[in-house]
Write a structure and sequence with these properties.
Length: 67
């Protein structure tokens, strides 16, 4: 999952929470109510950053956990 924007991700399918750790801020953002299909598409996207910007960033509510 090499990306210049995203360091790591995890997904809790039962809670539908997508967690993303960003390279620059090193903070974790938890995106709520993300459908499993979106996460699957995200995992398989050629550009994780582009997919995130187009399909996740301004679409789902989130919480920030500062490192």
């Amino acid at each position: 999952m090499p990306s210049t924007l995203i360091r790591n991700t995890s997904y809790d399918e039962a809670a539908r929470i997508l967690s993303i750790w960003f390279v620059t801020s090193r903070n974790r953002y938890d995106y709520m109510d993300v459908p499993p299909g979106i996460y699957d598409d995200f995992r398989h996207a050629f550009s994780k950053g582009r997919f995130f910007n187009q399909h996740i960033r301004d679409v789902y509510r989130y919480r920030i956990y500062r490192s």
